[in-house]
Amino acid sequence: MEKFKHLQKIKELYQKDENIIQYLKKISKNESNNIEDILISYDFQSGSYIKSFSENQEIKNKYCNGLAKIIDKIDGIESILEVGVGEATTLNTLLKNLKNLPDNIFGFDISWSRLKFAKEFLKDFGINNVNLFTANLFDIPLLDNSIDVIYTSHSIEPNGGKEEEALKELYRVTKKYLILLEPSFEFGNDKAKLRMKEHGYITNLYGTAKNLGYKIIEHKLFEFSDDKINPTGLMIIEKKIDEYNKPNLVCPISHTELINYNENILYSKDSFLAYPVIDNIPCLLKENSILASHLLTNYQDYKKQHNIILNDI
Description:
Elements: H1 7-15, H2 20-28, H3 35-45, H4 48-55, H5 57-72, E1 79-83, H6 89-97, E2 104-109, H7 112-124, E3 130-134, E4 147-153, H8 163-173, E5 174-183, H9 190-198, H10 205-211, E6 215-221, E7 232-238, E8 259-262, E9 265-268, E10 273-278, E11 281-282, E12 290-291, H11 299-305
Parallel strand pairs: 1-2, 1-4, 2-3, 4-5
Antiparallel strand pairs: 5-7, 6-7, 8-9, 9-10, 10-11, 10-12
């Protein structure tokens, strides 16, 4: 996280409404967006999506109602995950439109600050049963075949050139379906295509899914997208498996069980890694891990076991 030393400067740029990612890319002389750039940019934007939602609720409702109709056609959904949930403006509106709510609802984002807003925003609508946690799209802290339906809404978007890595990780975790609402290079006009390239957006999601051999059951322009310079494509991928896992949070590095050490720490006894929980939001980026091989060691028991006698001299 080398660029964290520039956070004060970045805050000034954000207040001037300047492009943070472009500034960060110049610092590192990278042409593509990296995870650190995306994290910093979105974290400073926290709250802005709720403001936008308040000004465009009718449009958002149509978008999410369209998504809800797709999900409602799927039988036996017990778990659902929004990747890049942000401030939960999409998730909240989707839940209001779904006819059948799953028992296990998850949402993660790379930015903790956005999840802080998401938690309070969901409370505004009386929703308190969503499992929110920070995570990296490329290192999801969930087991293989553990979530019935995973969907995205322009969250793979800034990861141009990493379409294959993103799809493989999402496909690993899902049990039944991936529903991807992402910028559609194929359905965009010349202006839209140029903008996607300039911003480092994905441009080959469909082609990559085909090359990976995934079963694509639908691919079209999403009819509820009204942004001509950043059109939303709909791609639905079906997955059929015989064995699956429970949708429990795991260590993002070892994929081993996490236990509640106390209300502020999640711990993996197998990897010896601890993760902080801030304001009831688990922080499960790999960079959040703390090596704590003796977290569960009782000091007094340790002294007895090793016959340690301390004298006050």
